[in-house]
Amino acid sequence: MDRPNSPVMRPIVWLGDSKRNLRDFPNGAQKLLGDELQLIQFGGMPKDAKPFKGVGSGVLEIALRYASDAYRVVLALQLGKRIYILHAFQKKSKRGIATPKREIDLIKQRYNEAQELAHDYEKTKIN
Known about the structure:
Layout: E1 12-14, H1 18-24, H2 27-41, E2 49-51, E3 59-66, E4 69-79, E5 82-91, H3 101-124
Parallel strand pairs: 1-5
Antiparallel strand pairs: 2-3, 3-4, 4-5
């Protein structure tokens, strides 16, 4: 029997090579980002998360500095009951804080894919 206020862990769906990319990060960065993703799975919001503008509603970016490098995980939260990891990458921009266009284009493409997956999942699941 479930307790009335027990937290529910939302499942994660990894798109493209995002999981492999995250596994290529240094162990310490993997641990910190994994903890933040788990917090989101249980309904929390990490301090390093911020809206990722220009893609869609409910898209967040977790930005992490680790050992003088910058790592990013971009995810979609508001597409049904699952969390979609759109992209994980090491930021190597030499010109300011802007995310490179090729990364943004990939995130937009995967957001569209996540929307389709969420629609199909919600349509076919049994309540």
